[in-house]
C-alpha cells in the first residue's frame, strides 16, 4: 500500500512539473527559475499524502501556494515578445539570431528572478553585427561588451 502512495505522489508531482518545464523551454527559452515551484510541488504533494484528512480547503491552499510560486517566477517577456521589443526599439530593419542565454550578475539574492538574459546576434541591414542581451524582467536591452 505504501508503494502505491509513493507512486501516486510522484505521478501527481510530475503531472504538475512537466508542463512547467515544457512552457519554460518553449516559451521562455529556459530562463525561468523553476526550482521554487518544483520544490513547492514536491513538498505540497508529500504534505498532502501524509495528512490524514485532506479537505477541500487544504487542496485549495496547496493549489494557491503552487500557483503563486509559478506566477512569481514567470518573466515579464517571453522570447518572442523580446524579439518584438528589440525590433521596435531599434527602429531599423535587423535580423535576429537567438543565441545561448547569458548569465546575469546580481548584487543580491533574488530567488524569484531569472538568472539569464535572452541573447541575440543582431545583423543590421548595412551588414554590421553585434550581440544584444535582453533582460526578460525589465525589458531593457544592451550591447554585450567584449
Task: Provide a brief overview of the structure.
The chain is an alpha+beta fold and 146 residues long.
Model description:
Keywords: Membrane, Transmembrane, Transmembrane helix. The chain has 146 residues and is α+β, with helices and mostly antiparallel strands. The chain folds into 2 domains: 72 residues, no CATH class; 65 residues. Helix content is 49%, strand content 17%. Strands 1, 2, 3, 4 and 5 form a 5-stranded antiparallel beta sheet that branches. The radius of gyration is 20 Å and the shape is elongated.
Number of distinct beta strands: 5
Low-pLDDT parts are: none
Helix segment tally: 4
* Helical residues, percent: 40-55%
Q: Tell me the series of helices and strands, N- to C-terminal.
A: HHHHEEEEE
- Biggest β-sheet, characterized? 5 strands, antiparallel
Q: What's the overall geometry?
A: elongated
| Spatial extent as radius of gyration | 20 Å
Mean pLDDT: 86
Strand content: 15-25%
Write down the domain tally: 2
Distance between the termini: 60 Å
The helix/strand class is alpha+beta
